[in-house]
Specification:
single chain; Dna Ligase, domain 1; 5-stranded antiparallel sheet; globular
Length: 344
């Protein structure tokens, strides 16, 4: 197999469906060239389809709105859910001219950031896996982060920074199937290796464990995060000292996960199920930031909904351990059963 073909790896959803579908008498046909789309044929004759992490379970309108963070925030706010305060959208100069919004360009965004008070979070309005999300502390960082977003998205969100623990709750048909805490990319000192070496060792561990996460060592956000901690790539950390290298906790960016399904308070589970239902979804990843821990009862003003995801990719979570791999297999088996029963 040449190097080009080695990259054509079947996404996790297709792999797991192929593994678990026979348990319910179903079979999966993958398009052979790219291995990113598939057809599920159930024993009752029904056919369903999927592409990457998107599948025939959620309705189109609800899914499309979930992909747009600003629209999703609007409806969640209307229904009384606690979204991140101070969230506001701004546009690339070109898009602002096209839609007739001359006061929502990058310079206006900077003035708004000043009003909120640095540091602030900037993020693309669409996309996933933490791409483009940045915590910025000053004008230079702000413009750099916004211009980076406008390379691939014409809409950016500026919002207050909130601090807490990051959790994802995965809901399928009125039930929370999995909850895990997401911990941002970090390294732990050994008393002799510098941060760059520790980061390379972490990447090697990912490869050894078949986790396909690629840590972007040249990510300017890492350099900025180190700078504000008085560190550089050449800094040597004392034993057991943990240093965080990114502010977003996405597993695709090198973050880690801890399964907390059993410890999660029932009211947080109820919240996630209700939000999924109110948003017209059957499958949803609900991302929460909690100023506290998820095992304790929700306290008003102490938790926020970061965003919702109508096609929560679980590739990195599944590859973080054997227990997580089993959880994902069981989750997708339940999804298959739901798809078999659903009517189009």
């Amino acid at each position: 197999m040449n190097k080009k073909n080695k990259k054509l790896i079947t996404p996790l959803l297709g792999q797991v469906f192929q593994k678990v579908a026979p348990r319910i008498g179903a079979r999966v046909i993958m398009e052979p060239k790219w291995n990113i789309v598939g057809q599920i044929i159930f024993k009752n004759g029904r056919k369903r389809y999927f592409r990457y992490s998107s599948l025939d379970l959620n309705t189109l309108g609800s899914s499309e709105i979930a992909r747009d963070k600003d629209y999703a925030n609007f409806f969640m706010d209307q229904m009384g859910y606690p979204i991140i305060p101070g969230s506001k959208t701004f546009f690339s100069d070109r898009w602002a001219r096209i839609i007739g919004e001359p006061y929502r360009k990058i310079d206006n965004a900077y003035k708004y950031a000043l009003k909120l008070g640095f540091p602030v979070i900037v993020k693309p309005n669409s996309g996933s896996q933490g791409l483009g999300v940045a915590l910025v502390h000053n004008k230079k960082e702000f413009y750099r982060a916004m211009n980076n977003i406008f390379k691939f998205d014409r809409v950016a969100i500026v919002q207050e920074r909130i601090v807490g623990k990051d959790y994802r709750l995965v809901v399928v048909d009125k039930k929370v199937i999995s909850v895990y805490e997401r911990i941002p990319l970090s390294v732990v000192g050994d008393g002799k290796s510098n941060i760059l070496r520790l980061l390379k060792k972490k990447q090697q561990k990912f490869v050894a464990s078949s986790r396909d996460t690629q840590i972007k060592i040249d990510d300017p956000r890492i350099v900025e995060k180190l700078k504000y901690q008085g560190l550089t790539f050449n800094s040597i950390l004392e034993k057991k000292k943990r240093v965080f290298l990114l502010d977003n906790a996405n597993l695709s960016a090198g973050g880690e996960s801890i399964d907390v399904t059993k410890e999660t308070h029932s009211k947080f589970k109820k919240l996630a199920v209700q939000l999924t239902r109110d948003r017209g979804l059957r499958l949803c990843g609900v991302d929460l930031m909690i100023d506290g821990v998820i095992s304790e009862e929700p306290e008003q003003g102490k938790f926020w909904i970061l965003e919702i995801n109508s096609a929560p990719g679980l590739d990195h979570y599944a590859k973080s351990g054997k227990a997580q791999e089993k959880i994902v297999e069981n989750l997708y088996l339940k999804i298959l059963k739901s798809m078999e029963k659903s009517n189009l």
